[in-house]
Amino acid sequence: MAPISIRTVLISESVDPRCRAILEENGIRVTEKQTMKKEELIAEIKDYDGLVVRSATKVTADVINAADNLKIIGRAGTGVDNVDVDAATKKGIIVMNTPSGNTISAAELTCALLMSLSRNVPQAAMSMKQGNWDRKKFMGAELYGKVLGIVGLGRIGKEVATRMQSFGMKTIGYDPITPPGVSASWGVEQMSLEQLWPQCDYITVHTPLMAATVGLLNDETFAKCKRGVKVVNCARGGIIDEAALLRALESGQCGGAGLDVFVEEPPKDRSLVQHPNVISCPHLGASTKEAQARCGEDIALQIVDMVKGNNLVGACRPRPHSFAPLMLTLLRPAWT
Ligand SMILES: NC(=O)C1=CN([C@@H]2O[C@H](COP(=O)(O)OP(=O)(O)OC[C@H]3O[C@@H](n4cnc5c(N)ncnc54)[C@H](O)[C@@H]3O)[C@@H](O)[C@H]2O)C=CC1
Ligand SMILES: O=C(O)C(=O)COP(=O)(O)O
């Protein structure tokens, strides 16, 4: 690949300091500005060859059209739904992400939400802080023997599956691309969504946000689920339709929801967050020291690869994600 000249990079969000250090070690001038308004970004973007973002910076067509010198948009993370990739491509701007750097962290938070939902941990903790000792109110249910439906069997979906299997959950799923034989090798039986909805005690979504996944769970699909189904969204706001979710929670069709992401972040309308059967986080899936270190380092190295004209195929370095099935195999008694 021909080297690309990148002399200035703007980092518009809180990205691990290794990112800046690697870029500077390679002669790139870095500016960090973390609270830019859209107008500010539009006014300043022309001064930069590269832009590094996380999920909060909306790199819309008007930002891209104002970016006279921009050659690369680096997303230090997975989802690129905050970047208008079509507009960037039309302008010849490369968009790259670091898709494996935060996989484990997002999977672990999903598991934490599933476990918290089953045992009402956040609600019980809040009640204790208020001076109560309410053992009856927070009666839970075991995850053992329950059915977990995983919609989207990519990196995160797979890691959630292998972890929740160790709690004795049956894992079923759907993905239009991952071959059923592959997901079967990590213990997930694939089926159509029509077959999946009525079987699940818990559903977790792990797809990108795109036209086909907006409102994947809606009034119609909630109606096909078991009464009291619990749902987790650690992927993107809107994959579970928020208004439909609120209606399902109010009717009891949905027994609880664990939400890390929202259509609007932070959400102005707090009716979901305030619902007693909802537990939520402020988009924390990737917010671990380890994930941020990997994503910050990876995006910087990928930009440096471009400057040096290194082949980008395989630039996204493999991560040891398969440790979970390996550990499970080693720890599981031979007769199971
Ligand atoms: N909460 C957080 O902080 C984080 C959220 N994410 C979100 O999680 C999403 C998934 O991440 P990864 O697993 O790494 O992505 P991935 O690309 O490895 O997996 C996504 C899977 O979804 C499948 N898919 C696409 N359309 C589908 C549909 N209509 N129905 C069912 N499956 C469909 C794809 O075939 C693919 O296997 C990201 O796109 C991002 O939006 C990712 C990291 C952190
Ligand atoms: O990587 C992703 O897709 C995420 O959602 C993480 O977003 P963040 O980098 O924490 O703003």
UniProtKB/TrEMBL annotation:
User: Which InterPro entries did the record assign?
Assistant: D-isomer_2_OHA_DH_cat_dom, D-isomer_DH_CS1, D-isomer_DH_NAD-bd, NAD(P)-bd_dom_sf
Please give the pathway this protein is involved in.
Answer: Amino-acid biosynthesis; L-serine biosynthesis; L-serine from 3-phospho-D-glycerate: step 1/3
Q: What class of enzyme is it?
A: oxidoreductase
- EC assignment: the record states 1.1.1.95
Q: Which UniProt keywords apply?
A: Acetylation, NAD, Oxidoreductase, Phosphoprotein
D-isomer specific 2-hydroxyacid dehydrogenase NAD-binding domain location, by residue? 112-285
Q: Which reaction does it catalyse?
A: (2R)-3-phosphoglycerate + NAD(+) = 3-phosphooxypyruvate + NADH + H(+)
The record's annotation in CDD domains points to:
PGDH_4
Q: Which GO terms describe its molecular function?
A: NAD binding; phosphoglycerate dehydrogenase activity
Q: Where is the D-isomer specific 2-hydroxyacid dehydrogenase catalytic domain?
A: 9-312
Q: How does it assemble?
A: Homotetramer.
State the family named in the UniProt similarity comment for this chain. Answer: Belongs to the D-isomer specific 2-hydroxyacid dehydrogenase family.
Q: What's the name of the protein? A: phosphoglycerate dehydrogenase
Lineage in the entry?
A: Eukaryota, Metazoa, Chordata, Craniata, Vertebrata
